[in-house]
Structure to design on (285 residues):
């Protein structure tokens, strides 16, 4: 593969929508329309939140996860595992991608730069020693939930809105949903993480507890969304009826799909959740 192809492979394009979707919701919430008010700055934000931030974060992750990646079937084709790139090359890529993310963020605004710097710092703290929060149960969940569920939608909001006006209720809903989705992913890598000595949430507490905690977080997120709709706060009251119908279905889907989580099952859960997500976007415009 060419160097450019390897860089894309390390940045894992299938991860980019994990930031793009909540960022888009934040953008729609700020603009009250489905199409962006400021397309150039929106495109720059998508560039930063997709390939640049994920590229920087995942190069760090690959560098420090090599022992577990070597025994993880899902990571068998990772460039560092196959030997197509070496650690020195990944470190060089990290510096360049991180710098590109920060420089591009300057065109969006100073607080956006601060947010990107914070995400890069959390990415380092998650993967790299001495902190390596991935191996500190609870912290691994908190970091991912904060970045995906709070920072990403706040970044979308900040493209055109005042970052200080970002609604905390939406942040809470995002935090709970993101945590609920992340917890089962620690179960999918349980054998590899156990073998490598990485004490993730699932390694520390077990798959059964992880399942219960994830389900509780999912139900809590849905409950907060219902409460917001009932009080017409951030979530429009017009969604209350549809939510009352879809909430039992979403709880059932989560309970079934995360019982023995796999990547295809988590993808299916994302597709199920896309339906009320689209409904919310339509309701606030």
């Amino acid at each position: 593969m060419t160097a450019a192809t390897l860089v894309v492979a390390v940045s894992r394009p299938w991860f980019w929508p994990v930031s793009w979707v909540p960022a888009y919701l934040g953008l729609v919430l700020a603009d009250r329309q489905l199409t962006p008010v400021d397309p150039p700055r929106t495109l720059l934000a998508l560039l930063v939140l997709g390939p640049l931030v994920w590229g920087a974060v995942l190069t760090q992750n690959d560098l420090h996860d090599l022992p577990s990646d070597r025994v993880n079937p899902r990571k068998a084709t990772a460039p560092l595992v196959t030997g197509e790139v070496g650690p020195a090359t990944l470190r060089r890529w990290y510096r360049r991608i991180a710098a590109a993310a920060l420089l591009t963020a300057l065109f969006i605004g100073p607080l956006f730069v601060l947010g990107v710097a914070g995400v890069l710092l959390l990415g380092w703290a998650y993967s790299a020693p001495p902190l390596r929060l991935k191996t500190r149960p609870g912290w691994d969940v908190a970091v991912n939930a904060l970045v995906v569920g709070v920072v990403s939608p706040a970044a979308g909001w900040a493209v055109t809105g005042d970052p200080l006006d970002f609604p905390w209720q939406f942040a809470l809903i995002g935090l709970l949903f993101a945590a609920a989705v992340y917890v089962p992913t620690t179960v999918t890598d349980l054998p590899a993480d156990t073998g490598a000595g990485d004490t993730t949430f699932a390694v520390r507490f077990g798959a059964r507890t992880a399942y219960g905690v994830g389900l509780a977080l999912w139900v809590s997120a849905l409950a907060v969304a219902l409460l917001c709709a009932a009080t017409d706060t951030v979530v429009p009251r017009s969604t209350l009826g549809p939510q009352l119908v879809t909430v039992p279905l979403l709880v059932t889907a989560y309970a079934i799909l995360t019982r023995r989580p796999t990547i295809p099952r988590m993808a299916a859960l994302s597709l199920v959740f896309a339906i009320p997500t689209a409904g919310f976007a339509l309701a606030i415009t």
Summary: The CA atoms of residues 145 and 178 lie 5 Å apart. The chain has a mean pLDDT of 94.
